[in-house]
Amino acid sequence: MNHRWIIVYDLETDGPDPSTANPVEIAAVPVNPRTLEIKMDDTFEVTVKPPGIDKDAYFTTGVQKTIDWHASTRGCSSADIVGMWKKGKSQKVAMKNFCSYLQKYHIEKDPVRRIYFTEPAYSGYNVDGFDDIIIRNMCDKHKLDYPFAKMGNMDLLNYITYWFENMSEPENYKMDTLKEFFGLQSHGQAHSAISDVVDTAKILVRFLKFARRQVSVDKFKGSFA
Length: 225
Known about the structure:
Layout: E1 6-13, E2 23-31, E3 44-49, H1 61-74, H2 78-86, E4 89-90, H3 91-103, E5 121-124, H4 127-141, E6 154-155, H5 156-164, H6 175-182, H7 193-217
Parallel strand pairs: 1-5, 3-4, 5-6
Antiparallel strand pairs: 1-2, 2-3
C-alpha cells in the first residue's frame, strides 16, 4: 500500500533538449496517497531566471524559437516572455526552494508498515523523459540532494500508453488533445507550469481511482494457478 505523497510537477524550459535546457518555471501540487485528494492549498510555483539571459549571446536561434513558442501559446509578445524570465529567481535559489518545499512531503520510516523510502513519488506528463532529467542536472549543478523517490514514480504518459495503445482515440498523446478527449477545461493559463500540473493531477487521479476500483473486481492473486 502506498503511503508516500505523490507530487505532480512540471517544468517550462528555454529549450526542447533536456540535457541542455534551463527551467524557466517550476510548479508542483501534492496528491494525498490514500484519499487521492489534490492539495490545492499548497501548490508550488516559481519563475526561474535562466543563466546568461542578460547577455546577447544567450539568445541563440533555438532559444529564440522557444521564446516565440511560449509567447504564441500565451497570447503575448516575445519581449513579455523575456521580461518575465528576467524577473525570476536565480536558478540556484529556485531549486533550493523547490527542494525545501518537497521536504515537507517526506514521511517517516515505519518498518511495521514496510515503509522504508521516505521521499515523495513524482508524477507528471513525460517527466521520465524530460523533466526528471533536468531536475537531476540541476541538483548535480547546484549540489543538492535529489528530492524524489528513486522508485515507484508515476509518469502519466505511461498510464496513457497502457490504456489507449490499442484504441482509435485519442488521436495523439499531446496534452491538449488529452484534455479535449477527457472533457477537461484548463486550470488557468494553458501551457503555464501551474496550469499543467493541476490538469495532469486531475487526469492522474482519474486513472488511479479507476485502477483501484478495477483491481477489486479482476482478481490478480492466483490468476495463473
